[in-house]
Amino acid sequence: MNKEDKLVIAGHEFSSRFILGSGKYSMKLIEAAVKYAGAEIITLAVRRANSKEHESILDYIPKGVTLLPNTSGARNAEEAVRIARLARELGCGDFVKIEIMRDTKYLLPDNVETVKATEILAKEGFVVMPYMYPDLNTARDLVNAGAASVMPLASPIGSNKGLCTRDFIQILVDEIDLPIIVDAGIGRPSQACEAMEMGVSAIMSNTALATAGDLPKMADAFRQAIEAGRKAYLSGLGRVLSRGGAPSDTLIGFLHD
Amino acid sequence: MDNNYFVDSKKLSKEALAKKHELENNPASRADIMAYLPGMEQIDSDISAKVLAEVESYDPDSYTAADVQRALDHKNRSIEDLKALLSPAADMFLDEAARLASIETQDHFGNTVYFFTPLYIANYCENYCVYCGFNCYNDIRRVKLNMEQIEHEMKIIAESGMEEVLILTGESRSQSSVEYIGEACKLARKYFRMVGVEVYPLNVDEYKYLHECGVDYVTVFQETYDKVRFEKLHLRGHKRVWPYRFDSQERALMGGMRGVAFAALLGLSDFRHDALATALHAYFIQRKYPQAEISLSCPRLRPIINNEKINPLDVSERRLCQILCAYRLFLPFAGITVSSRESKSFRDGIVKIAATKISAGVSTGIGDHESKYTGKNAETAEGDEQFEINDSRSFKKMYEDMSEEGMQPVLNDYLYL
Asked: Domain with B206 in it: what CATH number?
């Protein structure tokens, strides 16, 4: 752990542990995320930037903010690789979030194709941040393929359902030595806080903010929740008893030697 | 009340008129709608059987207010729920349905609204579909644009700011061959980020060819899923082959297309059955091809040249709204397109409830974008429209209006891969 408690992704340091997702994009949202949630990384769907208007979108990203282009629209590894290369050509830098979906209903990520794309892009020097279904074997494969972080989903994207995959994310936190960034499904600041308490490194969210009544206020709430969760994790949570009360008398008093 | 579809042109020859009347009056003179014509590919699919089984057993009047309330309360809505939402009992719940639909739309699409414009490149047609302005017996100016004219049209549309185009033709393989359409699509790729087609149904290899030309989205309207009615409305031509048309979306996906669109032309038959069939057609396709992007359109009948009497009958705006809410609640992730057949006020309202895509700067005529966009007289002949549009707002006006409504216009969210 570095002293200042920075989020470190492939050697790049970030003070904020809130990352803005790209699902529902608007200028107001970007402004609120940067100003009130403290976002230093903002996701950008390359397919959305493939517009004559894209320059205005890119112009709107404040200086000092790291752009994280994603590969949404890719249905396999090959398509994701092509989108990542295009993002680099568009001047979006070397960060890339891999999103590969073969399902238009739930938009669940395809872990197998994601590992393939990660391997190719890591070799090409990209800082690869793969979005995945929380599975330990896949996470290990991603580490070996050269991923810079692992981004498990908390629940279906856009659903605001919170930590449906809680126990499996915990396994990734416990076993994987890369930043675990929870991506998709976080619908409330309290859920973000809970994930941070579990030891995840950062939270990516979009819909929760985009659909809030008061964007700046919700962005601020997320910032505070993430900071609170992080502090709780760093301070070491008090134990939570799962069964009965703590016995004051020992159960092993009969042992004599 | 029924529509009065039949109109005789004075320009038809005696023989043509006799043939037309024979088709209209003598069912035995018409081809079997279930028989494939030579060259039509038959694929192995059980989707039409699944859709028809549900539609044929659907009794809208059997659903009660309690059924509708249950459907509204469910998080994931079943086929039974869809049937309840399309029933007469759902009318009194329209406000609540609209509110829930708007939440689903917000959750899946935010406040975005996608823009596109149709580009008709030819209006020759070999079919006799009695309600359509392009039908082969209708006396209209027929035009097929050449590549130079098509490029000219595309330039004008692209200059307006539009980034998505839907290429349309009348249904004539001899006048508008697959290669002709393909060449037009290659041109479209130069001027637009996203290219879709709405042309006559094709075989898998032909869809594959169009995909290679730059197309990723295919729209085919079944018009009506009611075979008895279909037979009486599509009297002549390849369009009469109901099952070949039904399987178009599946063949398009087999040919490598990313997305497919579905619709019934509301007002041709019982709209509740047709709306149910449309949603289920999309639903079963998505289950079989989970990677497919699906979208629904909801055209209502409109007047055509030489027949002002054609109208959407009992499909009022309120009914259309009910249908769109049912589509949204049953298929929360599906795109929904509302065309310029509908009024400004309806389109402004429905984008906040269920629709995700609207057209702007629309002409359903041929080669007339320059005159319509700039007021300048066209140098070449213009072909007549397929139907009368209702909302004639330009791209710029639509962009301003949607922004004012609190919506975020999206011109493109797509990459050709």
From this structure: 3.20.20.70
